[in-house]
């Protein structure tokens, strides 16, 4: 049982998510240059922290002596890309980290589906300066980041086009995309539409061909950005915003499948490794 320090809270994990980033870290499935950087940051021969997992929804079980924001019994959700540890029943996180009250109208499984994709999508949409009236295309609109990007771009007032496979067209349309392009049938760069922003939500390894040709369909002054561009820095205010939007129904969690126990973590990682999940893969610990 982990013991919280003075400024930490001990959290009972009730649900966590298996993200593509978790799988990249587990298997170092990165380019040679990034693999070296990852070893330096995370551990050379093996992860310094043996328990992975970045996302949780759960309950504050106990608090350190100096904690003022939370108290035992609070229901929370959060994200920690450095401390990890959510593939466990309990974890200690700093009080001032990415931790916020869980949306009261959502289950723990639904709440765990929000932080990873939501924070990444919000960061890049803000970085691109998305505003009302713009035309935004989300490439990879059915993944954890893509489903969040479609909804958040729509919330910001943009007209959204989602690109996905045939099986996910209905899902992406239900999230608010005005137009959905099935990449197995047509190529968005051959269309007449011009976009103020093209957001690659899957990463450059998988979308390299489309990104190389995206300038063809950019509006004057338009931009193309990728989820691989830079190292995002997140803040608690954005997590609070995501919780507020979820409470109001402005964004909805997209869940592909839920596994019933941490005993299923290997199967969950194998599934995510296939690269075809819709939204999020969740592990329930209740």
What does it look like?
There is one protein chain. The protein has helices spanning 20-27, 32-42, 108-112, 115-127, 144-155, 169-174, 204-212, 236-248, 265-273; strands at 8-18, 55-63, 75-79, 90-94, 99-101, 135-139, 159-164, 179-182, 195-200, 218-226, 255-259, 280-284. It is α/β, with parallel strands linked by helices. Strand 9 (195-200), helix 7 and strand 10 form a beta-alpha-beta unit. Helix 4 (115-127) packs across helix 5. The longest helix is centred in the middle third of the chain and has 13 residues, at 115-127. The chain is globular, with a radius of gyration of 19 Å. The model has no long low-confidence stretch (mean pLDDT 93).
**CATH architecture field of the largest domain:** Alpha-Beta Complex
Percent of residues in beta strands:
25-35%
Given as residue ranges, the uncertain stretches (5+ residues, pLDDT < 50) are none
* Sheet having the most strands: 7 strands, mixed
- Radius of gyration in whole Å, from Cα? 19 Å
The CATH homologous superfamily of the largest domain corresponds to Medium-chain alcohol dehydrogenases, catalytic domain
Residues in helix, %:
25-40%
Question: What is the averaged pLDDT score?
Answer: 93
Number of strands: 12
What is the terminal separation in angstroms? 18 Å
Give the overall silhouette: globular
What is the CATH third-level topology name of the largest domain? Quinone Oxidoreductase, Chain A, domain 1
Total helical segments: 9
How many structural domains can be distinguished in the coordinates? 2
* Helix-strand string: EHHEEEEHHEHEHEEHEHEHE
For the record, the CATH class of the largest domain is: Alpha Beta
**Class from helix and strand fractions:** alpha/beta
């Amino acid at each position: 049982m982990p013991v919280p320090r003075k400024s930490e809270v001990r959290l009972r994990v009730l649900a966590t998510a298996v993200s593509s980033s978790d799988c990249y870290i587990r298997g170092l499935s990165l380019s040679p240059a990034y693999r070296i950087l990852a070893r330096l940051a995370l551990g050379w021969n093996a992860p310094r922290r043996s328990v992975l997992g970045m996302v949780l929804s759960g309950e504050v079980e106990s608090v350190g002596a100096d904690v003022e924001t939370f108290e035992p019994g609070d229901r929370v959700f959060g994200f920690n890309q450095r401390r990890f540890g959510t593939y466990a029943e309990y974890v200690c996180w700093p009080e001032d980290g990415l931790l916020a009250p869980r949306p009261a109208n959502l289950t723990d499984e639904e709440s765990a589906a929000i932080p990873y994709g939501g924070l990444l999508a919000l960061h890049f949409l803000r970085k691109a300066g998305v505003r009302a009236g713009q035309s935004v295309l989300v490439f990879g609109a059915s993944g954890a980041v893509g489903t969040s990007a479609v909804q958040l771009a729509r919330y910001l007032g943009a007209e959204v086009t989602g690109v996905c496979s045939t099986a996910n067209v209905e899902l992406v349309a239900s999230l608010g995309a005005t137009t959905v392009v099935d990449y197995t049938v047509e190529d968005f760069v051959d269309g007449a539409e011009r976009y103020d922003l093209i957001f690659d939500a899957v990463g450059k390894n998988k979308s390299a061909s489309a990104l190389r040709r995206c300038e063809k369909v950019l509006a004057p002054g338009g931009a193309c950005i990728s989820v691989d561009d830079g190292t995002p820095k997140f803040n608690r205010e954005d997590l609070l915003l995501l919780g507020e939007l979820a409470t109001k129904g402005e964004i909805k969690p997209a869940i592909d499948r839920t596994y019933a126990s941490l005993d299923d973590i290997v199967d969950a990682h194998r599934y995510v490794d296939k690269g075809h999940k819709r939204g999020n893969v969740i592990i329930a610990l209740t």
